[in-house]
Design brief:
The complex is a heterodimer of chains A (312) and B (532). Chain A contains 13 helices and no strands. Chain A is mainly alpha-helical and 312 residues long. Among the domains of chain B are: 68-202, Dipeptide-binding Protein, domain 1, CATH 3.90.76.10; 295-328 and 338-496, Dipeptide-binding Protein, Domain 3 (Dipeptide-binding Protein, domain 3), CATH 3.10.105.10. The chains are: A mainly alpha (312), B alpha+beta (532). Chains A and B meet through helix 2, helix 3, helix 5, helix 7 and helix 11 of A and helix 1, helix 6 and helix 12 of B.
Chain lengths: 312, 532
């Protein structure tokens, strides 16, 4: 186990450099003229151009210039300095302000997915082909079919503006209540997937040999379901939710935008729109780490949940 | 060359994305709505230093923190605010006398030196200030440019006494007094500088000004900027005590908030909500004049479009009223002149017959002049221009009987690069917003031979001469007469087709009244009142 984790960590280092290099290359190679992008639609004066060129080492051109800037960037990154965005703010500060709210939102979304998704999944799995099972099937298909970009504004309009059950936007220091609606919207997709996954898994396990054995030795149905079936059925669900948490933390660009939540996805979106290369690369570098770690944790969790799985 | 805000309409979506998330309220039904603070939507400002702020959101905050030397009245003529008088006998050497009694928010008295220091800081190229070019008319500006400038101070700026300073321009400019209303010409206190000519890093986080409001705490990035009334302000007192500039990334989020009374003022209604906004907001939906100007430019160096008759024919084949009605839902007005109607000196229909929609004449003229058999209209795809370009394309197709296509470039900068390289892009869209209300601001940069935003290669010595004479004129009336003659030349040559003038389309909550917007898309912070 220890050797496995060590090997994974070493791989992570490689993956980290690979991904940052690619993101860095894509972000800066695709740019027509970063200085012009920064100025928007105004012509840029010579003074301004010279100032920014020097500040962001844009004077060295070609492949050499690219690697010069990349290594310069990685060097300061390793020292914990994420650099400055094109508007002159420390990216570290931006992320520090953005993380807590994104994590909160992700946890709410995850809680929604677990509480409603897993519960409904278990019920649907036990009562296969019942009205409940069929109606959840239709509902989940509907949710999976509607993209967030439609669902979020609709929820905002009806629940926030029309009936005023929730505040329409959350803002920077939101209360739990204000984050609830965005959390539900964000979690609805994971909810639907978790529900389908749990249902299938429970349905399959109910037909397993050990359930028949348990039943024949006279165990009550409740005990069979809650102790034996549930535990075995949750393995794929936990894996899914683990990966999903990593996904959610990387920021929900659309949801955070619609509900005006200044989280990570929000900043990432702004960086992309304004061609703020340093900001995008900075955020993505951190996200890469989040992904790598959450994947590792999920893999290790596998072994913990299922003793048959061993890592060497 | 003076460079202007070429952006406005198109930059709007961009500006929106510049902002972040934020907003303090929402939360528990609004921490803000509990207090008396009036909340106004902005995007995350790029900078909050007067000489480094050129976008609307930053300028909106600065209008609260600073008082300009001059402001503009209902007719858009300048009148003195922080200045006592701005005078000149020859329009070259200007004397600015300051009103006594103005203090910065830290108690420091405002002196002539504060203006001189701030302007020199802005003009000094290595400081990389966005508004650098606003100082180019001042004598000695050139010495502060380049990588290693010769001087740190402009020779044309001289302090006379504590409340008087003298500005010498490199050549006479009649509109200098009007120009002083722009954001770049605010003063900065001694406390802003850590050493002469070196701005403190912390200044931008809580700018100290001499205006009706002072900062409450610091700039909370991506969230909000709070200001409160500065009681020692000698000018017109604001009616509200606290204002919260709440930062949004998406206008649609702000629009939802303003409908739910969660946000007090939304200066720009998002385009997708324009058709429903009058019904959603009722009498809280407002419009007012604004200075933006949208037009289609011709690459006059391209022989397809070098004949003015071809350009006029295309102009006549466009039904502007139909497009403003169906695409813009009346939120913009048809334009048939080359300067904005908000300006002194504006005249209706200067484009004459070429501005009237007349499909039969247009087709006749187009064929007689030998117009190209295929017309391309290029635009930037990120600015929400597709709808009206498509409508224009269809109109031209139907009315001229030739093949017309719209071609989208990813960004405006890409479009301009292609135009500068004289690649065949066909006609292309442009937009313009003034920085201060003079006709020269619309004519000089856009159409003079060396104009900073003359991308279409238009050159007419007669026109150049008239604009130059206008800025060097002795009186405003004389200047306007010259500018108007210059505009008449444009009508004859038609280097661009005027399409639309913009309007502020804004909304407010039921908790505020007297919401007024100026020509620069900024809310008037002194006039706004809480509704009780």
């Amino acid at each position: 186990m220890f050797r496995y984790i060590l090997r994974r960590l070493l791989q992570m280092v490689l993956a980290f450099f690979g991904t940052t290099l690619i993101v860095y290359a894509l972000m800066f190679a695709g740019q027509g003229d970063p200085i012009q992008a920064l100025a928007g639609e105004r012509p840029v004066t010579e003074a301004q151009r010279a100032y920014l060129t020097e500040k962001y080492h844009l004077d060295a051109t070609g492949v050499g210039g690219f690697f010069y800037r990349y290594f310069d960037y990685v060097k300061s990154l390793l020292q914990g300095d994420l650099g400055q965005s094109l508007t002159g703010r420390q990216i570290g500060d931006i992320l520090q302000a953005a993380w807590p709210v994104t994590v909160k939102l992700a946890l709410i979304a995850l809680a929604v997915a677990i509480i409603f998704g897993v519960t409904a999944g278990v019920i649907a799995g036990i009562r296969r082909a019942s009205i409940f099972d069929n109606s959840t099937l239709v509902l989940t298909l509907l949710v999976l079919g509607i993209p967030t970009i439609v669902l979020a504004p609709l929820a905002q309009y009806f629940l926030g503006v029309r009936w005023q059950l929730f505040p329409p936007t959350a803002g920077s220091e939101p209360t739990f209540y204000a984050l609830l609606l965005p959390g539900i919207v964000l979690g609805s997709l994971s909810l639907a997937t978790a529900l389908r996954l749990t249902r299938t898994s429970v349905a399959e396990n109910l037909r397993a040999d050990y359930v028949r054995t348990a039943r024949s030795k006279g165990l009550v149905k409740r005990r069979i379901v809650t102790v034996h079936v549930l535990r075995n059925s949750l393995i794929p669900v936990v894996t899914f939710l683990g990966v999903e948490l990593g996904n959610l933390m990387s920021g929900a660009i659309i949801t955070e935008g619609v509900f005006n939540i200044p989280g990570v996805g929000f900043n990432l979106f702004r960086g992309i729109r304004t061609e703020d290369g340093p900001l995008v690369v900075g955020i993505v570098s951190v996200l890469v780490v989040v992904y790598l770690v959450s994947n590792l944790v999920v893999d290790v969790l596998y072994a913990v949940l299922d003793p048959r799985i061993r890592y060497e | 060359m003076r460079v202007r805000r070429l952006a406005a309409w198109t930059a709007l979506p961009l500006a929106v994305t510049l902002g972040l998330a934020a907003c303090g309220s929402g939360g528990d039904g609004g921490s803000s709505s509990g207090s008396s603070a009036v909340s106004i939507q902005i995007a995350e400002p790029k900078h909050l230093v007067p000489t480094n702020t050129t976008e609307t959101s930053g300028a909106q905050v600065l209008t609260g923190l600073f008082a300009p030397l001059v402001d503009y009245d209902a007719q858009n003529k300048p009148y003195e605010v922080a200045a006592d008088s701005v005078t000149s006998s020859d329009n070259k050497v200007w004397t600015v006398k300051l009103k006594d009694g103005y203090t910065f928010h830290n108690g420091e008295k405002v002196t002539a030196e504060d203006y001189v220091n701030a302007w020199n800081y802005g003009a000094y190229a290595p400081n990389g200030q966005d508004s650098n070019y606003f100082f180019e008319k001042i004598a000695g500006y050139a010495d502060l440019q380049g990588k290693a400038p010769k001087a740190k101070e402009m020779s044309g700026l001289k302090k006379v006494d504590d409340l008087t300073f003298q500005v010498t321009l490199s050549e006479p400019y009649i509109d200098f007094r009007t120009m002083l209303g722009y954001t770049a010409f605010y003063p900065m206190p001694d406390a802003a500088f850590s050493a002469p000519g070196v701005l403190k890093d912390s200044y931008e986080q809580a700018p100290i000004g001499q205006g009706p409001f002072k900062m409450k705490g610091t700039w909370q990035h991506d969230s909000k900027i709070e200001v409160e009334r500065y009681d020692a302000y000698p000018g017109e007192k604001p009616k509200v005590k606290d204002i919260e500039f709440r930062i949004y990334q998406q206008l649609t989020a702000a629009y939802a908030d303003v409908q739910a009374d969660n946000l007090d003022v939304l200066p720009t209604i998002p385009t997708e909500s324009l058709s429903t906004a009058p019904a959603d907001l009722g009498d809280r939906y407002k419009t007012s004049p604004m200075s933006s100007f949208q037009f289609l430019a011709f690459p006059t160096f391209d022989k397809d479009y070098s004949n003015p008759d071809v350009r006029k024919a295309i102009s006549m084949a466009i039904d502007r009223d139909e497009i403003t009605k169906s695409v813009f839902k009346g939120s913009q007005q048809s334009a048939r002149s080359f300067v904005s109607p908000v300006l002194p000196g504006y005249r209706d229909n200067t484009a004459g017959a070429a501005g009237e929609f007349n499909p039969t004449e247009a087709k006749k003229l187009y064929q007689a002049a030998g117009g190209p058999s295929k017309i391309v209209i290029s635009y930037n795809g990120d600015g929400g221009h597709k709808d009206w370009v498509d409508a224009t394309v269809n109109q031209l197709k139907a009315n001229l009987g030739v093949d017309v296509v719209g071609s989208a470039e990813p960004k405006f900068a890409d479009l301009l690069t292609k135009v500068e390289k004289k690649q065949p892009v066909g006609m292309f869209r442009m937009g313009w917003v003034m920085d201060y209300p003079t006709m020269e601001d619309y004519l000089g940069p856009l159409y003079s031979t060396n104009g900073s935003s003359n991308y279409y290669g238009y050159s007419n010595p007669e026109f150049d001469k008239l604009v130059k004479e206008g800025s060097a004129a002795k009186t405003q009336d004389e200047a306007i007469a010259k500018y108007q003659q210059a505009e008449d030349i444009l009508a004859k040559d038609m280097p661009v087709i005027p399409l639309r003038f913009g309007e502020n389309v804004f909304g407010h909550s039921s908790k505020v009244k007297n919401v007024e917007m100026d020509l620069f898309q900024r809310v008037n912070l002194v006039k706004i009142e809480a509704a009780s």
